[in-house]
Specification:
This protein has 10 helices and 12 strands. By secondary structure, it is of the alpha/beta class. A 6-stranded mixed sheet has the order 6-7-8-3-9-10, with helices on both faces. Strands 2-1-4-5 form a 4-stranded antiparallel sheet, with helices on one face. The protein has a two-stranded antiparallel ribbon with strand order 11-12. Bound molecules: adenosine-5'-diphosphate (ADP) and magnesium ion.
């Protein structure tokens, strides 16, 4: 269970997140984090991951993460940044091995088996890349390796910042299906920044909508993603319609006309 209480983050003297409260977010659920550019999505994820100083509390399974050492926190929380993994001259397999060992010094993590690494790669559909060098991969392939590096660490809380941005349509759906499956099977909480509202509607269980560092929507994707909220937050004219298969889809008709 994840609960965010009175979370505030500032860069220098400039406040970005203002006493944000969210949750409780139950384990086994994929939570989409939506909001316009610059609204504070990446800042929020970094603060939850412990990479930025913040006020307030981030409570995971009854423990306040903000009071834990960085090492203890890194065993439970994995954050995949918006930027693609660094182009180091390591083979994909080695880079996943390094990721598994780097955050956790327990004998179990240090002894990660080759089978487990190949299993994660094959679940992501990239086992054929395992002996390729990271610095020779395409952007989308690197993004999938970043996800493998995150999943091998078996976190309790998985924070993914725009993990679909470089992926083709097939891999976008594949990754969202996989994340939902892993999230349910392992009972973790996955928070994922998305720009594609239809992905959020169809592949997430809860949605947080933020604008200028404030939470303006919190609940099921269907209740949060509405004509009104999209006009308020993105200033677009949007319709949310149910298709012939009973799925909800967002259609954008254009920008809202400014009131005269
Ligand atoms: N390292 C930083 N130093 C100062 N301001 C920053 C820094 N990173 C982000 N910001 C500012 O914080 C606000 C929120 O940014 P960010 O969290 O990256 O937004 P989002 O991920 O929603 O696009 C923006 O106004 C951005 O310019
Ligand atoms: Mg961002």
């Amino acid at each position: 269970m994840l609960q965010i209480q009175d979370l505030s983050v500032a860069y220098g003297r400039r406040p970005i997140i203002h006493r944000l409260n969210a949750g409780p977010l139950a384990p086994g659920r994929v939570v989409s984090l939506l909001g316009p550019n610059g609204s504070g999505k990446s800042t929020l994820l970094k603060a939850i991951a412990g990479l930025l100083k913040c006020g307030g509390q981030v409570v995971l399974d009854g423990q306040d993460l903000t009071r834990q050492s960085f090492e203890r926190r890194a065993q439970q929380v994995v954050y995949l940044p918006q930027s693609l993994p660094a182009s180091v001259h390591l083979r994909v397999f080695e880079s996943v091995l390094v990721a598994a060992r780097a955050s956790d010094l327990s004998p179990q993590a240090q002894a990660v088996s080759p089978e487990r690494i190949l299993d994660v790669l094959s679940r992501l559909g990239i086992e054929q890349l395992s002996m390729r060098y990271l610095d020779e991969l395409s952007g989308g392939q690197k993004q999938l390796v970043g996800l493998a590096q995150a999943l091998i660490r078996t976190p309790r809380l998985l924070l993914l910042d725009e993990p679909l941005s470089a992926l083709d349509l097939n891999y976008q759906c594949h990754v969202m299906d996989l994340l939902r499956h892993e999230t349910q099977a392992q009972g973790l909480t996955t928070m994922i920044v998305l720009h594609d509202l239809n992905m959020a509607l169809q592949h997430s269980d809860d949605t947080l909508l933020i604008r200028a560092g404030e939470l303006v929507g919190h609940g099921s994707p269907e209740t949060v993603i509405t004509t009104q909220s999209l006009a308020q937050v993105y200033q677009v004219n949007a319709r949310v319609e149910t298709c012939s298969r009973g799925l909800r889809h967002v259609l954008i008709d254009g920008l809202c006309t400014p009131a005269v």
